[in-house]
Design a protein that fits this description.
Number of domains of chain A: 2
Shape of chain A: globular
Shape of chain B: rod-shaped
CATH topology of the largest domain in chain A: Rossmann fold
Largest sheet of chain B: 7 strands, antiparallel
Helix content of chain B: 40-55%
Radius of gyration of chain A: 21 Å
Radius of gyration of chain B: 62 Å
Structural class of chain B: alpha+beta
CATH class of the largest domain in chain A: Alpha Beta
CATH topology of the domain at 349-491 in chain B: Alpha-Beta Plaits
Number of helices of chain B: 13
Largest sheet of chain A: 6 strands, parallel
Oligomer: heterodimer
Strand content of chain B: 15-25%
CATH architecture of the domain at 349-491 in chain B: 2-Layer Sandwich
Strand content of chain A: 15-25%
Distance between the termini of chain B: 58 Å
Order of helices and strands of chain B: HHEEEEEEEHEHHHEEEHEHEHHEEHHEH
């Protein structure tokens, strides 16, 4: 009997403990970040690190089903605009299309426009919003390019009876009247967490540079702020440069080359958007530098750099879920619902930090790469 | 001088000949079997490549036809859209929706000059999502693979639409995206899992997610094949993929030999790859070979059995013949022996036979084995006179008459002619017991013959006495008695020598 209990109880008990520890770890990070798979970080996270592979596999959830909410109309027409034409938002679009197909299967037709400029611009976004406001959309959604510029525009639209929501990477400024936000609610923490990983890797000393995306873009600015605050905690660490690439890989590359020329002894680069780590990795590779790069998102090239060890870690956001939940929330808003039981005022979507050993899984998951 | 073939030589020749013959049949069968197996293995490789290339080519053409068919439908769809006189986005969406039913183009879309994509349900900026839009001119058809984040891989067919204007806005392209799973369904057929196929990109990446056998599975072809083929072979085939050249690779993995064949798919940058385990073809050919081999084995067994039966029958027949010859030989030997012991004129035993009998009897006498033994000596009277006066024929007749006379009376004795006119009769047992009566009868007959002028025989006899050492002792006494009788008969008028 003892042997029976020994064999049959140890495994379930271990699994249960692992799950409890995993939940505690997730909860303690405010639901903003997934598990670390980096062996050097495993010491700090104990048993939770053992479940890194399943965590990485579920970093992006492609398996969604609509909830039980019954739409009041059989046709909805939405308008969404986002910062810039970029693969990151193409990934969000796939989640939106999945939701649209599922509604169609239930007899509800969803049509929408999903538009962006070729380069991020708060002015362009304002123009698009005003133009869309003049048309008869059920809901208008926006990924805020610059919270200071866009938030007042959104307030005006709300005041004029237009149903407005924010989505994907950047919410409006606090106090904005927009109805709801679906997306990353923890950009500051993501920036801080990535920087913390970098600091630990550098043993809390050295020179670092910060690459940011678009000036005023809340998500980018929040991450940069999280990074700066984290660096400030460590007296032996110094920020030698902060540059904006305007969501362009080429600009990120040029900026990194210049930073490396100006600071040959640069120890690390913190990248706050999707284009930053690709441009930085290209430059570091070009220079033959050993500078440690941490960055955001799931760009295919960036994942290959991660696989090759050029990038140290990446924070991968669940774009598919962002897109899917955005459509679901938009339908509920269109029906006149307010945040509460049906949907939250801020629907949080997860970010998972992945390391070199997770890159192959992520490449296969997202791009089918072998 | 010819050497005579003996029975032993003949049998030995037959056995050796039979063994050699059977050995040749068996060796020939084994060599044929091995040659067949080797030829089969060589054929398997050739058949594998040929079969796979044909299969890959057929599937490749199916995709090419699908692409061409879709391009034709897209052209018709654009004409249809142009003819509708559309002015609003809603009308455009409805029209694209109707195309779905009219032309079976599920994911048909149009792209305007601002790179905005118009589909049945959505309108979106597609610059980063569709690689063909990076070609600013968009002046020719393009086929590309969509490998978008988390999405199923799709084949994107795009065609320029130089004359398309909707609501006063110019549209530069139309495109459809075909789910690769649909292509796989189109290509799949049930062959009981004998073959595997997949569509691969130029760098060996599996686009279809279909397993190319258990070893390669869905992995990058070259990453896996690189472990089991030489680097030269790997590089050569990589070049083929990059330059859209068909080819094949044979490799051994996990103890199984496999052949894969690849054919470029026209109009795309894809390779259709088909794989088969050689064991499948080998098994098929082996089954045929084994059936053939079984038939050969049966033939050989039948020949062997027939040969064995043939040699057995031959052996038995030879044995019968040899036994017959042996019997004849024995008979001849006996005849020869009889001839040696028989007097040719009278047919009774001759001097040689008498000598043999004398030797036997001498031994028995010396060993005191005989009690009753008598020797009768008979001599023909007047033989020389007859020979001299009437010729030898008359003399021979006289001898024969004398012999007949003696044999007629001494029916229980052994009669020997030991000289020209001299006979000896050896009497034992019953002949000995009746000797006196017989002597009386024959002497009476002889005396009557004197009167009749017929053959006269002088007869003396003697019996074995305990003192006799040899037969000759008995003979001597009988011979002396015979001479006495000869004189008596002379006195009775019997013919004598002059």
């Amino acid at each position: 009997m003892r042997s029976f209990f020994g064999k049959n109880c140890i495994l379930p008990v271990s699994l249960a403990m692992t799950l409890v520890l995993s939940s505690c770890s997730y909860a303690s990070s405010g639901g903003r970040i997934g598990e670390f798979a980096d062996p050097s970080v495993q010491e700090d996270y104990g048993d939770a690190a053992a479940s890194s592979v399943p965590e990485v596999s579920s970093a992006v959830d492609f398996d969604h089903e609509l909830d039980s909410y019954v739409p009041q109309k059989d046709h909805y027409n939405f308008y969404f605009t986002y910062k810039i034409v970029h693969p990151w938002w193409d990934a969000v679009a796939l989640g939106m299309e999945d939701a649209q197909r599922q509604y169609l299967d239930r007899g509800v037709k969803i049509t929408y426009e999903y538009m962006a400029p070729d380069s991020a611009s708060a002015e362009d976004q304002t123009m698009r919003l005003r133009e869309a406001g003049g048309r008869d959309f059920d809901v208008i959604g926006v990924d805020v390019a610059d919270e200071a510029v866009i938030s007042p525009v959104l307030d005006e639209m709300i005041d004029s009876g237009i149903k407005v929501m924010t989505f994907s990477s950047s919410d409006a400024a606090p106090g904005c009247k927009r109805i709801a936000y679906v997306g990353n609610t923890h950009n500051y923490e993501d920036g801080a967490d990535l920087t913390e990983s970098l600091c630990k890797k550098l043993e809390y000393k050295g020179k670092v540079a910060i690459l940011v995306g678009s000036v005023g873009a809340p998500c980018h600015e929040d991450r940069a702020r999280g990074a700066k605050d984290t660096i400030a905690k460590y007296p032996d660490m110094e920020i030698v440069a902060v540059e904006y690439d305007n969501d362009s890989v080429d600009i990120a590359y040029d900026l990194t080359m210049k930073i490396l020329e100006d600071n040959p002894d640069l120890d690390g680069i913190i990248c706050c958007n999707m284009s930053n780590p690709v441009g930085a990795a290209r430059a570091v590779t070009q220079k033959g530098s050993s500078t440690v790069i941490v960055g955001m998102d799931h760009d295919r090239e960036a994942l290959h750099y991660l696989k090759d060890g050029v990038i140290y870690c990446l924070g991968v956001q669940d774009c598919y879920s962002i897109g899917f939940d955005t459509i679901q929330t938009a339908v509920k808003i269109a029906d006149g619902n307010k945040p509460g039981e049906l949907f939250e005022e801020k629907t949080d979507e997860s970010t998972t930090v992945i390391y070199q050993e997770d890159a192959a899984i992520m490449l296969e998951l997202l791009y089918g790469d072998d | 001088m010819k050497k005579q073939i003996t029975k032993k030589t003949l049998i030995l020749t037959g056995i050796i000949g039979g063994i050699v013959l059977m050995g040749m049949i068996i060796v020939n069968a084994v060599i044929s079997s091995r040659q067949t197996t080797m030829a089969t293995n060589e054929a398997v490789h050739e058949v594998s490549s040929f079969y796979l290339e044909a299969m890959a080519d057929r599937r490749s053409k199916t995709i090419t036809n699908l692409i061409n068919s879709n391009f034709d439908h897209m052209e018709k769809a654009v004409t249809y859209v142009n003819d509708q006189g559309i002015y609003s986005e809603d009308e455009l969406r409805d029209t694209i929706g109707s195309i779905k039913y009219l032309l079976s183009l599920d994911r048909f879309a149009l792209v305007d000059d601002d790179n905005i994509v118009h589909t049945q349900y959505t309108t979106y900026t597609g610059g980063s999502r569709h690689s063909f839009l990076s070609d600013g001119n968009m002046d020719q058809r393009s086929v590309s693979t969509v490998l978008l984040y988390g999405s199923t891989k799709q084949l994107c067919l795009a065609a320029p639409t130089p004359n398309l204007r909707i609501g006063g806005k110019r549209y530069k392209a139309s495109f459809v995206q075909i789910d690769i799973k649909e292509i796989i369904d189109l290509l799949a057929f049930d062959d009981d899992g004998r073959t595997y196929f997949g569509i691969y990109s130029k760098n060996g990446e599996n686009l279809t997610g279909t397993e190319l056998g258990p070893y390669i599975s869905t992995h990058n072809l070259f990453n896996v094949i690189g472990n089991v083929v030489p680097e030269d072979t790997l590089n050569e085939n990589k070049d083929h993929f990059l330059n859209a050249v068909k080819g094949s690779i044979t490799f051994t993995a996990n103890g199984a030999e496999s052949t894969l064949s690849y054919v470029p798919i026209d109009g795309t940058e894809w390779m259709m790859v088909v794989l088969i385990h050689d064991s499948v073809i080998q098994e098929r050919i082996r089954n045929i070979s084994e059936e053939s081999l079984l038939y050969s084995k049966r033939q050989i067994t039948f020949i062997l059995i027939v040969s064995v039966i043939f040699f057995l029958v031959l052996f038995l027949m030879m044995r019968v013949i040899f036994n017959k010859n042996l019997e004849e030989e024995k008979k001849n030997t006996k005849n020869f022996r009889n001839m040696a012991n028989t007097d040719s004129l009278t047919g009774v035993r001759n001097k040689h036979a008498y000598s043999d009998a004398e030797n036997v009897l001498n031994r028995r006498i010396s060993e005191k084995e005989i009690e009753k033994l008598a020797v009768v000596v008979c001599d023909i009277n007047g033989l020389k006179i007859v020979n001299d006066t009437q010729g030898h024929a008359a003399g021979d007749k006289l001898i024969k008459d004398a012999c007949s006379l003696i044999c007629e009376h001494f029916t229980h004795g052994a009669v020997y002619r030991i000289g020209g006119d001299e006979f000896v009769v050896i009497l034992q047992d019953k002949g000995f017991d009746t000797m006196k009566d017989v002597l009386t009868e024959i002497n009476c007959a002889v005396e009557e013959n004197i009167t009749k002028k017929e053959v006269v025989v002088s007869i003396g006899y003697s019996t074995l006495t305990p003192e006799d050492q040899m037969l000759h002792d008995v003979f001597e006494r009988a011979d002396q008695m015979m001479y006495k009788r000869k004189k008596e008969l002379k006195q009775m008028g019997a013919p004598t020598r002059a």
